[in-house]
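Researcher: We plan to redesign the surface later, but first we want a full-length starting point. Tokens attached.
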């Protein structure tokens, strides 16, 4: 590197400065003759040439001297960058100049530690030469040992270093290898004299004590800067230091953990130090002491945290050394076992286990020794104070030990958890309101009985309280809870120990009884329960009666698993409730078939909408006087690939039960509006279509918003749609109900109560809802004009509609006599087979084009 080599050339002894100054003075002095000035100029030129020649001569001498040194010589910047290298260095390293100059010193010494410059700077700052033995690397990657002498010098205000590397390949001694090892190892080594002054310290020691550039180890290790404590935090005096002890005792002090607190920076670190005394030749007392140490700060911290975590979590550690037949226990493990004296072997630890659990632990330990692996046991343990506790014992073989000579594990005090589990176990089996077994508990008991062939002959009674919801809604939940508790007590008394009684959920109870000694026990218990519930219940001076519906199922005939047995008992209960209530019903094969049919129906029904199996037919609504078609009612049909076409009475009730009616109802509403739009586009005008709306659909969605969205989709006025509701909506006198009806009426949608008279006939609610008309149920129309009761109902409904100003449509008109009766009664509109059944859209369009539907046309 030219500039570095030029910088190293010493200054010339020929200085032309004086000659140039004289020439400058002559130029400014007017009294100097031109001839004198010319002579001065020639002298200056000669002096400059002489100076240049001498400078070049000096540079050549420097270069010759630099390159004449037989050992590699490097000029280094203070940060270790190579500024120049002589010919011996180029030859030794077998690299071109440009691969070395300008690079860090690590290019020649790749094995140097990260902070290798620290001790170099320290020695040079004291004016000393730094000597180190390292392995240099040639261009082909091969290494060779060298002894490097580094000295410092200043040039032009900058600190520089010159390093001479002497090849030690021919005299690589054990001492040299030891020195190289000392410089390279990651263990701190410091040599102290008897006054505890540092003689030498390796780079690892500098790192460990935090020495920075320009700081000496002696300065850092001044006693006033440090507080030294033992492993438990007790301060140590100077005489108690491991190094002092090694000097005084003249013996090695091994593996002593001490804490070093550096006062100036308030830094705490922990080291494990071994102190070795060093004797001079023929000496009887050590003159020096080596301190070899490793930083164990992280390990010490982890151990402290581990001990604290053990105490907080009540978890202790243990180790069984089979070779030494010795059991090791942590402090927390000793506290948990509470044994005095402490167990010293695995057998002594097993002896403290409760007798019923000893064999489990013994077997687990033996199996682990034979096959490896681990074990995890919860055991009762007996302390020396005769108090029993629960411990969780985990053990596993040391994975690094092929002979399983060491078993390690943990001990955890789980006494509180076990007590809590027992409390929860009792609570988990008990219904808090009635004190009976709960659903989970009775299922477990039933499963255990049915799995045991000797006790598999059992029966279940599924009990549902009739009208409980009405009482709970009218009198409140407090009355409902009191009723359930009283009913539970009566049921338990009626069962009288002949079975297990559980509250299965809500107002449902389950009784499980044995059939082995009495095949008629279920029926007898059912009768006793119905009799026990006959007496009235009282609450806040209110008296009311509660009955029950009971279903009975026997195992294994009515079910081989608990769920199927209970499901069949539930089906029998619902059949009893449907028939009469306040009775019991046994499960039968016919009921099983009905249940299977229902399941089949519900399964296929759920897929019908997605498979496009639904379609609509349209039954005309006609003017009874003129026969003119005035509207139509959309009727859904289900075309099933197995059963053919199904009418609504075959599947709507199932859809109501499963909730599928909401999705089906939305499809019907949209499809009807689509068809009205299609007729309009075909030039038939707007035909009002009536669509039935399920009660579930009414309460399960924002009906007004859905209707408006569909009308907007097909660009239809509200008057094109008529919505028919069952009478159930009449009792929903909620603000949401009234608001929905008001929003629909504001759209122009026609609102009608379907099958009026069959249900609640809540006239008080009827006058509040903003509806347009009523539909006279087919149930009453089919009996006129011969059945006096049906005639009376029809007359009453017509009177109600007339008095409230409501429209009226009669359903199910099938004879001329019925038509004539309705005409005389004043019913304007009717529909039924007398005029037409449900028609396909194109057929309805043809009838519409004909202008009317008189009885004679059908």
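Model: Full-length starting sequence:
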């Amino acid at each position: 590197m030219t500039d570095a080599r030029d910088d190293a050339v010493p200054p010339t002894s020929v200085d032309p400065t004086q000659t140039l100054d004289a020439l400058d003075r002559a130029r400014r002095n007017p009294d100097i003759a031109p001839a004198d000035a010319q002579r001065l100029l020639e002298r200056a030129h000669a002096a400059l040439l002489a100076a240049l020649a001498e400078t070049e001569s000096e540079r050549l001498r420097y270069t010759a001297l630099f390159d004449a040194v037989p050992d590699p010589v490097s000029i280094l910047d203070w940060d270790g960058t190579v500024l120049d290298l002589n010919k011996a260095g180029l030859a030794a390293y077998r690299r071109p100049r440009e691969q070395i100059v300008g690079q860090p010193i690590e290019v020649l010494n790749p094995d140097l530690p990260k902070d290798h410059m620290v001790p170099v700077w320290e020695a040079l700052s004291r004016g000393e030469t730094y000597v180190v033995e390292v392995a240099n690397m040639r261009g082909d990657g091969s290494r060779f040992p060298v002894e490097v002498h580094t000295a410092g010098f200043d040039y032009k205000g900058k600190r520089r270093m010159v390093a001479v590397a002497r090849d030690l390949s021919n005299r690589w001694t054990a001492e040299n290898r030891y020195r190289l090892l000392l410089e390279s190892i990651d263990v701190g080594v410091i040599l102290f004299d008897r006054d505890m002054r540092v003689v030498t310290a390796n780079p690892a020691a500098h790192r460990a004590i935090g020495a920075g550039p320009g700081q000496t180890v002696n300065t850092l290790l001044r006693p006033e800067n440090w507080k030294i404590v033992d492993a438990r935090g007790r301060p140590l005096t100077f005489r108690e230091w491991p190094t002092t002890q090694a000097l005084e005792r003249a013996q090695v002090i091994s593996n002593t953990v001490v804490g070093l607190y550096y006062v100036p920076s308030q830094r705490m670190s922990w080291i494990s130090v071994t102190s070795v005394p060093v004797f001079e030749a023929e000496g009887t007392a050590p003159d020096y002491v080596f301190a070899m140490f490793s930083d164990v700060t992280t390990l010490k911290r982890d151990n402290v945290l581990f001990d604290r975590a053990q105490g907080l979590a009540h978890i202790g550690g243990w180790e069984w050394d089979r070779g030494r037949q010795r059991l090791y226990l942590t402090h927390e493990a000793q506290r948990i076992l509470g044994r005095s004296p402490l167990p010293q072997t695995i057998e002594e630890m097993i002896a403290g286990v409760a007798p019923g659990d000893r064999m489990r632990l013994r077997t687990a330990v033996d199996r682990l020794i034979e096959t490896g692996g681990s074990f995890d046991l919860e055991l009762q343990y007996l302390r020396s104070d005769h108090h029993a506790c629960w411990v969780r014992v985990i053990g596993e073989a040391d994975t690094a030990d092929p002979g399983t000579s060491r078993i390690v594990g943990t001990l955890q005090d789980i006494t509180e958890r076990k007590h809590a589990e027992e409390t929860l176990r009792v609570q988990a089996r008990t219904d808090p309101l009635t004190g009976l077994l709960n659903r989970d508990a009775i299922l477990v008991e039933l499963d255990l009985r049915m799995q045991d062939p000797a006790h598999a002959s059992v029966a279940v009674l599924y009990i549902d309280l009739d009208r409980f919801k009405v009482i709970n809604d009218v009198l409140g939940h407090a009355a409902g809870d009191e009723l359930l508790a009283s009913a539970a007590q009566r049921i338990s008394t009626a069962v009288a120990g002949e079975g297990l009684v559980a509250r299965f959920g809500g107002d449902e109870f389950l009784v499980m009884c044995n059939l082995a000694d009495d095949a008629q026990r279920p029926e007898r218990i059912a009768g006793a329960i119905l009799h026990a519930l006959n007496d009235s219940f009282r609450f806040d001076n209110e008296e009311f009666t509660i009955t029950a519906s009971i279903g009975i199922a026997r195992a294994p005939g009515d079910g081989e698993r608990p769920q199927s047995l209970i499901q069949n008992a539930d089906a029998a209960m619902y059949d009893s409730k449907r028939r009469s209530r306040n009775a019991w019903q046994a499960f039968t094969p016919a009921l099983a078939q009905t249940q299977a049919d229902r399941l089949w129906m519900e399964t296929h029904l759920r897929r019908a909408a997605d498979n496009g199996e639904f379609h609509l037919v349209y039954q005309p609504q006609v003017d009874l006087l003129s026969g003119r078609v005035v509207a139509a009612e959309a009727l859904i049909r289900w075309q099933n690939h197995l059963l053919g076409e199904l009418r609504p009475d075959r599947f709507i009730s199932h859809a109501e039960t499963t909730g599928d009616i909401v999705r089906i109802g939305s499809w019907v509403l949209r499809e009807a509006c689509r068809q009205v739009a299609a007729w309009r586009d075909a030039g038939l005008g707007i035909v009002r279509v009536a669509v039935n709306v399920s009660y579930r659909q009414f309460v399960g969605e924002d009906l007004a918003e859905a209707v408006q969205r569909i009308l907007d989709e097909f660009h239809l006025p509200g008057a094109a749609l008529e919505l028919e509701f069952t009478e159930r909506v009449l009792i929903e006198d909620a603000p949401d109900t009234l608001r929905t009806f008001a929003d629909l009426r504001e759209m122009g949608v026609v609102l009608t109560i379907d099958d009026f008279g069959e249900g609640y006939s809540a006239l008080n609610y009827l006058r509040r809802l903003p509806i347009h008309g009523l539909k006279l149920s087919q149930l009453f129309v089919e009996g006129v004009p011969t059945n006096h009761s049906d005639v009376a109902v029809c007359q009453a409904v017509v009177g109600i509609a007339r008095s409230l100003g409501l429209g009226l449509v009669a359903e199910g008109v099938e004879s001329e006599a019925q038509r004539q009766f309705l005409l005389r009664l004043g019913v304007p509109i009717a529909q039924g087979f007398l005029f037409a059944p449900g028609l396909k859209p194109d057929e309805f369009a043809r009838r519409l084009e004909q202008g009317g539907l008189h009885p004679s046309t059908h």
